[in-house]
Amino acid sequence: MSPTSSITSLLGALAASAMLVLPVAAQAPAKTPIRSAYIPAATWLPAWVAKDTGIFERHGLDVSLAVIQNIGLLPATVGKQFDIAPATPPDLVNAAAKGLNVVGVAGGWVESGARRSVEIVVRKDSGIKGPQDLRGKLVAAVALGSLIHVSTLYWLKQNGVDPNSVRAVEVPFPNMPDQLKASRLDAVEVIEPFVTPLLAAGNVSIGDPILSVADPTHGTMWIADADWARAHPDVLKAWIASLTEAAAFIKTDPETSRAILGKYTRLPEPVVKTIPIPEYNAVLEPKSLEPWIKVLTELGQVTKPMDAAALVVKTQ
Question: Is the peptide bond before 193 cis (omega within 30 degrees of 0)?
Answer without folding.
Answer: yes
